[in-house]
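During the reporting period the student researcher (J.K.) took over the structure-prediction task from the postdoctoral fellow and processed the backlog of single-chain submissions. One of the processed entries is reproduced below for the supervisory committee.
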Amino acid sequence: MSWLTIALILLGLLLLGIFLYWQLIIAEGAYVGPRLVALMYDWSAQAYERIKRYSPSDEQWFLGLPLTRSLERVPAPLVLDVATGTGRLPRALLRQPSFQGRVIGLDLSKGMLQEALNRTAQFSDRLTFVWQDASQLPFEDSTFDAVTCIEALEFMPDPLHVLDELIRVLRPGGVLLITNRVGSDAKFLPGRAFDPDRFEAILSERPLEQVRTRRWQVDYNLVWAVKMGDPQGGGIRPLEEVLRCPACESRMRREARAFRCTGCGRGYPVSDDKVIEMADVP
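J.K. obtained the following structure tokens:
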């Protein structure tokens, strides 16, 4: 084997290593597809919070408290946390004494949902988890008083489509809280992370107002907005009234261990851990 062949093999291995590092470490599988992203989070779920080293006090101060204050005039607010992961946003919110509402957490990783269940057991009477893809939120329009998506949009196949879904299920006058990736790795996420000014412009093109950006962490901005229209907030409705079938968008009927679509008849089981399983239903 010639030195040229060896050099080409080594170069190929180096390029493959760079590609895998970009795809699996920086992009977390985002350019391969949501199933790979979910699988990677399944693998890392138990170690996720240890790796990220979240500060509970920071979560309370920068997420839970301001979100609670933004909802203080809404009686019994209903909040949706998309890509809820280990349930960090629900915990930060439900630990606020003045928050008297309910939270639904949605994620495509079953491993992360299991970890969230373990970490939020004390709030189980006010918290529901749904296993489903964020690109097709199984809820009717104008359902939630607040919708959040923290550190996740850049890992979605089509982040702007997910953004439109977040806005769709938000009530007029409701609060949108999302993040935008801005750290040094953002330049390696083309089409997924946005220049801050461009991201505010994207939001302003949608039925949103009071758009404001705050630097949060080294890698993220927190972005707040309010959905246009006369406020319609308040009042927690039963799950069967707000859930919609991902297959045909019809209303759901509650059964003993499932929700069943009144249109196509598909059943969506509720697991022993009380997770509503709406993804990959045959």
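The committee noted the following: The first helix runs from residue 3 to 26.
J.K. will present the remaining backlog at the next meeting.
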